[in-house]
Amino acid sequence: MSSKKSKTRNEASSSRGGIGEESIVADCGRNSSSCGYCKSPTRSSITHGLWTESLTVSDYQALLDRGWRRSGCYIYKPEMDQTCCPSYTIRLKASDFVPSKEQQRVRRRLERFLDGELDARPRERTEDSDVSFSGEVSESVRKSPGAAKREQNDEVEPIMKELSEQIDSAVQRCIQSGEFPSNIQVLKASVKKVLSTKRKKLAEGSEELLYTSNIAFPIAAAIKHGKTSEKGEKNNAEENRLSPESVSEKLLSEMRKVREFSGLSIKVSKGHINFLSATQVTSADRDEGESLCATRTKPSSSDLQVRKRKLEMHLKRSSFDPEEYDLYKRYQIRVHDDEPESVSETSYKRFLVNTPLIQVPPSGSDAEEKVPPCGFGSFHQQYRVDGRLVAVGVIDILPKCLSSKYLFWDPDFASLSLGNYSALQEIDWVRQNQAHCSTLEYYYLGYYIHSCNKMRYKAAYRPSELLCPLRYQWVPFETAKPLLDKKPYSVLSSPKASEPVAESTSEREDMEQRDTNDDDGEEMNNSDEELDSSVSGSDIANVLISLNGPRVRFKDLPRINNLAVRKQLGSMLIKYRKVVGAELSERMVYELR
């Protein structure tokens, strides 16, 4: 094959999208803004930005490997030695991933939920409230003495969830029958396990008290508050009718109408709804401990009316979906405390739907370059439980990796740690699809910010590695961590034997581009002859530029007579080449605006 034909094939291959598809970028330069991580009052977050509506997946892969990341069609890169919170690209090799005990628990917990053993009860906040997927419990917490007790509590949790649901149902039936006013605001029932030291205080007799609920007290208070607001007065008869004791009796009556609890008896005492073992126990039995007692009295699956659930995952090309937008809006408002008026379709599309990535369809069986069955490009991974949309993962699938961009989930399912679970699923996806695309090996988790505690959870996905911000080499996290413990910005990789160590900003710039200046062109030669000589001999000579259609190299540009314009353009191209690298500056099209 001739060299000309080989070059043409390689250029087409690099785009991974076919003939005529290319990356076109406009340089937005430096941008300073407030920081969402350290909450600095100044515009201390410093990034360099590119705008593009056309980007090949291979070029975006190369940008990722130089520390870039996209938000919609805007591509940005932190200026690491200038920004307040240096952000390091973090990835792991999917085939080497070893889940931690906490990550294994997340997977088991969701499996138990699907098997009907757990219910996803809402809670105010989770570890993954402010990140794309859930946080990791620290080693000190995992290894604390309380960890074993939490494991025991998990064993009896399905019982407490079931009992809570039964009480909630009884409350609703009392409201529907008119026993309770329809306008009262009632909290969800909470059933708690009773410690052995408190059992004698709450119940009498030979039966063992296991669980209790005080829901009657807030219900009675809510009813009294409503009556007082309506009438402005109370009498003794009304007060007795609305006492916690009478409320608990009504709830007990409703619960007994519906079903009996095998292995448990239900009684009320002083306003409390108590659940006791149906068999007698001795004092010796009481000393055996909480977990043994819970195991002995645990109702069977048939007693708890187990209802299995179905989890489905659907991978679709990035596009606007009203159902996804509704979920995103609820997530942002309830989890991130966004104001409702600040969450719009326009901002959602700009952030998570719009993409510059050129789609690549699946390859045929005889193709030279393999592509996974879904192709390359931007996707939304939907997670549905019994048809209900509970989470959406926004991802980019590229020649070397799956890049996780964002995840939003249903706040009602916060206890399931769907962010953590989705990360495990995405890692599994990479492993499975290596059979179709041998280059697809890595899972990119976005940015790791060592100076921000709530972002450190990403390092729990092991073994991970960070991108050196100077030499763009991948460094094991264990090697990088001691350096980052000393200062937020560090050069992570070691220099080659023949390469001097760069400590200052100017030295680092010289290492990246020794033959050019970065002072807005002020040090460029003033005479036309000297400027022409400097430009033609510089590293920007082969930068590819778009001139309203035609693509030309900088060295082939028609002569620009205006000296100030030539100096400004030269300075812009020098900065551009520095941030994207020599190879990409000669491959992507630099659009002049």
Automatic annotation (TrEMBL):
PANTHER family for the chain: ARGININE-TRNA-PROTEIN TRANSFERASE 1, ARGINYL-TRNA--PROTEIN TRANSFERASE 1
Region of interest (Disordered), ranges: 121-155, 226-248, 491-535
UniProt family annotation: Belongs to the R-transferase family.
Listed Basic and acidic residues bias regions: 227-248, 505-516
Pfam families documented for this protein: ATE_C (PF04377), ATE_N (PF04376)
Segments forming domain N-end rule aminoacyl transferase C-terminal: 323-468
Protein name: Arginyl-tRNA--protein transferase
Biased composition (Acidic residues): 517-532
Domain N-end aminoacyl transferase N-terminal as annotated: residue spans: 33-105
Physiological role: Involved in the post-translational conjugation of arginine to the N-terminal aspartate or glutamate of a protein. This arginylation is required for degradation of the protein via the ubiquitin pathway.
MF (Gene Ontology): arginyl-tRNA--protein transferase activity
Phylogenetic placement of the source organism: Eukaryota, Viridiplantae, Streptophyta, Embryophyta, Tracheophyta
UniProt KW keywords: Acyltransferase, Transferase, Ubl conjugation pathway
EC numbers, comma separated: 2.3.2.8
The reaction(s) this protein catalyses: an N-terminal L-alpha-aminoacyl-[protein] + L-arginyl-tRNA(Arg) = an N-terminal L-arginyl-L-aminoacyl-[protein] + tRNA(Arg) + H(+)
Record's keyword annotation contains Glycosyltransferase: no
GO cellular component terms attached to this protein's record: cytoplasm
